[in-house]
């Protein structure tokens, strides 16, 4: 297949050719022409236009052309899912989607500045996306800091930055409101689902969550809220222990009892008896 797009590529117009050659058509040919010639040359050359307005392979709402290729060709690969968010963040200037997006943009812009031949630029860009894909496949959990002393320094710095953080980011405020709104009605809150409402990468949310929510993970924070609600319900004799467990989102009474005791040091029945003695 032949593919054609506008000249001077940076993000989408290199990322998409990489995706095509690696997952769709190894023999694909790519043509770069001035923007106003893309459609005309596409007809003359029998090439498929991409990453320009009013063609099939383009941006849709907040999603970039790379997103569309992945969806169109049903590329089911966890590493590609990671790459997709990074590319989207870099191509749409939403670097909050993935911490790697800003770096990808910086490298791509610098590469385009240094290399004026678009096909040479594409070949060099292919190397970058090969490396990024390898990282997404094998190295996401690796850190550059390997020395134990260096790790201790990094942890100390992280603790300092966390305690000295004065401004709560907008997403954290919105997330707290979402949790408070849904905790009573949504018994299976998912950080991945909530991340879609916030338009923030779920991996980023998971990593940053504890900084703004009592130093707890998402799961621990939700359990803490459910236990607080359970304590309120236990003060009323109207609800049985089974009903309290259900109303606070626990799968069964034994699970509820175990988590409740972990948080309070007492099982629910003991807690209720002690309340009646006061």
TrEMBL record:
Entry-linked SMART domains: HTH_ARAC
GO MF terms, alphabetically ordered: DNA-binding transcription factor activity; sequence-specific DNA binding
Domain HTH araC/xylS-type: start-end pairs: 173-274
Superkingdom, taxonomy of origin: Bacteria
Record keywords, A-Z: DNA-binding, Transcription, Transcription regulation
PROSITE patterns with a match to the protein in the record: HTH_ARAC_FAMILY_1, HTH_ARAC_FAMILY_2
Alphabetized InterPro entries for the sequence: ChrB_C, Homeodomain-like_sf, HTH_AraC, HTH_AraC-typ_CS, Tscrpt_reg_AraC-type_HTH
One Pfam family hit: HTH_18
Protein name per its UniProtKB record: AraC family transcriptional regulator
Organism: Solitalea longa
């Amino acid at each position: 297949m032949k593919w054609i797009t506008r000249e001077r590529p940076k993000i989408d117009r290199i990322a998409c050719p990489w995706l095509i050659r690696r997952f769709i058509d190894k023999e694909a040919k790519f043509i770069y022409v001035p923007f106003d010639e893309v459609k005309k040359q596409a007809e003359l050359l029998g090439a498929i236009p991409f990453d320009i307005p009013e063609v099939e392979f383009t941006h849709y709402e907040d999603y970039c052309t790379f997103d569309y290729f992945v969806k169109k060709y049903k590329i089911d690969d966890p590493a590609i899912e990671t790459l997709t968010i990074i590319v989207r963040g870099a191509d749409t200037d939403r670097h909050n989607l993935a911490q790697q997006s800003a770096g990808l943009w910086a490298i791509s812009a610098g590469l385009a500045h240094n290399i004026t031949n678009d096909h040479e630029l594409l070949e060099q860009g292919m190397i970058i996306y090969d490396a990024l894909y390898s990282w997404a496949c094998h190295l996401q959990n690796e850190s550059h800091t390997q020395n134990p002393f260096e790790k201790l320094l990094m942890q100390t710095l992280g603790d300092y930055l966390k305690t000295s953080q004065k401004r709560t980011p907008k997403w954290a405020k919105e997330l707290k409101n979402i949790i408070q709104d849904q905790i009573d009605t949504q018994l299976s809150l998912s950080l991945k689902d909530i991340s879609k409402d916030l338009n923030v990468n779920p991996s980023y949310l998971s990593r940053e969550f504890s900084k703004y929510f009592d130093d707890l993970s998402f799961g621990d924070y939700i359990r803490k809220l459910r236990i607080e609600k359970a304590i309120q319900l236990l003060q009323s004799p109207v609800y049985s222990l089974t009903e309290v467990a259900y109303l606070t989102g626990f799968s069964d009474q034994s699970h509820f009892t175990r988590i409740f005791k972990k948080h309070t040091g007492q099982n629910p029945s003991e807690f209720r008896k002690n309340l009646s003695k006061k």
